[in-house]
Write a structure and sequence with these properties.
- The chain is mainly α and 184 residues long.
- It has a domain of 102 residues.
- It has 6 helices and 2 strands, in the order αααααββα.
- It has a two-stranded antiparallel sheet with strand order 1-2.
- The chain is elongated and about 85 Å long.
- The relative contact order is 0.19.
- The protein binds zinc ion.
Length: 184
């Protein structure tokens, strides 16, 4: 995994931008009333992810009658879609990896944003930049909708974890023709 610079954009600023063109005033008011819980969820995520404590973050529904589907649509239609009001934030996150290489596999090209904690269980985090990781299609699918139940089930996060200096694999070359016991 490649480390990425942690995005500094404020979750509420992103959320406000995403919902600014909603014409249905009832829906807009219900969404606006959720700002505090969206802010709190992002803060909790930020404080827990680096400590491998995300498994203690409880999945929750939104208040004010806002459904998970409505929040998913805020992301899909108002942030990810081309020309969407929040698309500038989407593009900014997509441009983080050097040469567009997926930070999770370091092999394929970035083509999507992966929700580190999935939308279906954490609607409060659908547009939080800290929860959105640029990734290739394959890595995104592999992670799917699973949520960590224990610390060891938490996956690495490119904004918080740095394993680039860690030696994952070692090899010793043994020449079977060598007569010495030096394993040269
Ligand atoms: Zn990948």
């Amino acid at each position: 995994m490649r480390r990425l610079e942690k995005p500094l954009d404020d979750t509420i600023a992103v959320f406000e931008k995403c919902i600014e063109r909603i014409k249905d005033q009832g829906l807009k008011q219900r969404l606006e009333a959720c700002k505090q819980e969206i802010h709190d969820a992002s803060r909790e995520f930020d404080s827990k992810v680096g400590e491998a404590m995300l498994h203690t973050m409880q999945p929750s529904n939104m208040s004010n009658g806002v459904t998970t589907d409505e929040m998913k649509k805020v992301y899909t239609n108002r942030m990810a879609k081309k020309l969407a009001p929040g698309r500038e934030y989407y593009d900014k996150l997509m441009s983080l990896p050097l040469f567009g290489k997926c930070p999770l596999c370091s092999q394929r090209t970035v083509s999507t944003l992966d929700h580190h904690l999935p939308k279906a269980h954490y609607p409060t985090l659908v547009v939080s930049p800290l929860n959105l990781i640029p990734a290739c299609q394959d890595c995104n699918k592999t992670k799917s909708e699973g949520i960590p139940r224990y610390a060891h089930e938490e996956t690495l996060h490119p904004y918080y974890d740095d394993v680039e200096g860690f030696s994952w694999l070692k090899a010793k070359l043994v020449d079977p023709l060598c007569q010495n016991s030096c394993h040269c």
